[in-house]
Amino acid sequence: MSTALAPETARAATTAALRLRLLDAQDQRRWDAFVAQCPEATFFHRAGWQRVLEQGMGHRTWFYYVEQDGAIVGVLPLCRVRSRLFGDWLGALPFCVYGGVAAATPAARALLDQAAQALAAELGVGHLEYRSVQASHPGDPSWHVKPLYATFRKAIVADNEANMNAIPRKQRAMVRKGIKFGLKGEIDQDIGRFYHAYASSVHRLGTPVFSRRYFALLKQEFGDDCELRVITHEGKTVAAVMSFFFRDQVLPYYGGGTDDARALAANDFMYWDLMQDCATRGCRLFDFGRSKLGTGAFDFKKNWGFEPELLGYEYQLHAAPAVPENNPLNPKYRLFIRLWQRLPLPVANLVGPLIVKNLG
Length: 360
Description:
By secondary structure, this protein is of the alpha+beta class. The chain folds into 2 domains: 8-146 and 313-324, Aminopeptidase (3-Layer(aba) Sandwich), CATH 3.40.630; 151-308, Gcn5-related N-acetyltransferase (GNAT) (Aminopeptidase). The chain has 12 helices and 16 strands. The chain has helices spanning 28-37, 48-57, 106-123, 160-165, 169-180, 192-205, 212-222, 261-264, 266-280, 296-302, 334-342, 345-356; strands at residues 14-15, 18-22, 60-68, 71-83, 87-92, 102-103, 127-130, 144-145, 149-155, 184-188, 226-233, 236-246, 249-257, 285-292, 308-310, 314-317. The strands form 2 sheets. Strands 1, 2, 3, 4, 5, 6, 7, 8 and 16 form a 9-stranded mixed β-sheet that branches. A 7-stranded mixed β-sheet has the order 10-11-12-13-14-9-15. Strand 3 and strand 4 (71-83) form a beta hairpin. The chain starts with 13 loop residues before the first strand and ends with a helix. Mean pLDDT is 89; it is low at 1-14.
């Protein structure tokens, strides 16, 4: 997909020695170097998401950055999701739990913000969405905040016994159950076993599955910072998780288990196996990622002793009359979920990627 400077607003901008530009291949290293040191930047601000979203999902992107005296001082990756079923919107960043502006100065932040709003208006999208950890427009009536998601993050230490003891008693018992069953964790380079466990899990939940190509692109693009961990029982895959690494943080992002996983406490063991291995390797923050309030995933993460932190997602309406409700808690999707659960798994895996790429 092209990221050419099609919108006039993206061609050039100068404000007090600041220059607004669009990312191209020769600037990716500079972009990622800024992201690595910017305190509010996340793994989802990395330049590699541009190729993943364009080639893996078929969406158009605009990865803006602001330059001052030859140095990047702010970034804002944007992607447009255009669907007859789920609407037309511009966001930072679809398919990611975090996003929004990451900037070193207020001036850079303002310039990026203005560019995003101008692009949203020029494209005529329904709304502009920032998936910020903390809302960046508090009190601004033109931006709406919906308390729909929370994230779960907790410090871990090099001492695995201390990490185990920090897990509440009932959840700790589930981890020990998996250990007693003789479960083992292995690192894969190929997505095959991971995809089997993941696809089985989301099918039971009634959720469309992502394509194999999408996961292959993630692994290819982010290399060792995208890890595939497979949990086996007597040589058979029972659970798997794809995790992202950023600075001293680990974020288990996509995961799931087979039909045997629950009886073996495989998912519980999987997160413990990941936690202890990463703690030994120097990770100091375990980021369980976001979950919707009122869901089983939300309760599962709380049971690990993680305190929920409401995410400050923001929505600015353009062509849409109201903030969309494209989430499984929307009652109108309940029938779809039940029908999807009844589909044969091979059919769900074939059709799912055609649907999920439009959800964001």
